[in-house]
Amino acid sequence: MRLTKLNHLLDRRTASGRCPDGKQHYWVASGEVRATAGNNIAVYVRCNNCSVRETVWLTANEYKMQERIINSSLDEQNRSF
Ligand SMILES: [Zn+2]
Q1: What spacing in Å lies between the alpha carbon of 27 and ligand 1's midpoint?
Q2: pLDDT number for residue 49
Q3: Residues 6+ apart with CB under 8 A from 21
Q4: Distance CA 19, CA 3 (A)
Q5: Dihedral sign for Cα atoms in the order 43, 36, 58, 39
Q6: How would residue 36 be classed by pLDDT, with cut points 50, 70 and 90?
Q7: Do 27 and 54 meet the contact criterion of CB atoms below 8 Å apart?
Q8: What percent of the chain clears pLDDT 90, i.e. is strictly above it?
Q9: What is the mean pLDDT of the chain?
Q10: Distance, CA 18 to ligand 1 centroid (Å)?
């Protein structure tokens, strides 16, 4: 099953980073979203190819705009397990 790619949420350097096998990282949501002080939201992502993990920091407004795609990424993965 093809998962929704969340590469656009990461900064360019991280988004275009490479897995150990030379492919481009394929970032998907990794299950947790956490609100923090200061109105920031931490979105945890992992590479669906090499499993490396990253944290994406979004403002509450940015998160609102991306919430649907983040949730659909999580839903897809729940369905495929
Ligand atoms: Zn990777």
Answers
A1: 7
A2: 95
A3: 49, 50
A4: 17
A5: positive
A6: confident
A7: yes
A8: 73
A9: 91
A10: 6
Q: How far is the CA of 3 from the centre of ligand 1 (A)?
A: 14
pLDDT for 30 equals: 93
Nearest to 32 by CA among 81, 73, 79, 80: 73
How do the domains of the chain map onto residue ranges? 7-80
- Distance, CA 66 to ligand 1 centroid (Å)? 21
Asked if the model's pLDDT at residue 51 lies above 80, the reply is yes
Q: Token pair for residue 70?
A: 């983040």
Report pLDDT digits (tens) over 2-13. Answer: 899 999 999 888
13 CA distance to ligand 1 centroid (A)? 13
CB contact at 8 A, 43 and 29 = yes
Cα 20 to middle of ligand 1, angstroms: 7
CA geometry: angle 68, 32, 3, nearest 5 deg = 55
